[in-house]
Amino acid sequence: RRKGSEESCLFVFFAGEYSTANARKLIDEATANGFVLIQTKEVSMRPEDVKRVFQNSADDLVEWISKGPVIALELNGDGVVEACKKVANEVFSGTKVFVSDNKNTSSRDVDSFFNFADMQMGL
């Protein structure tokens, strides 16, 4: 899907009872605010994958991947990173998620995750 904006955000749900429902809810929230879903993938990760993909945030996330696969979404649109952070705090406050920290590093987050996911699919 073509990106209408230079700004994309990586939003990852870690395995839990409602991760699929939460992903759907996020898509609804995002599209209602004019953002576009570019891609989504569900993959299993090992601790070394988490360190490579999430780098500085990895230590906090390693324990969560043992619970099952993660669901990652790339959302696109001007202001999408701030909007996703707001949704993470307001809608998913009790849920373990990763959200791109700022728009300067968000495209690197997206590339790191989906390059990893594409390699997993190729194995």
UniProtKB/TrEMBL annotation:
GO cellular component: cilium; periciliary membrane compartment
GO biological process: post-Golgi vesicle-mediated transport
GO MF annotations, alphabetized: GTPase activator activity
Gene3D superfamilies associated with the record: Nucleoside diphosphate kinase-like domain
PANTHER family per UniProt: PROTEIN XRP2 (PTHR15440:SF0), XRP2 PROTEIN (PTHR15440)
Family statement drawn from the similarity comment of this UniProt entry: Belongs to the NDK family.
Protein name per its UniProtKB record: Retinitis pigmentosa 2 (X-linked recessive)
Top-level taxonomy: Eukaryota, Metazoa, Chordata, Craniata, Vertebrata
Gene that encodes it: RP2
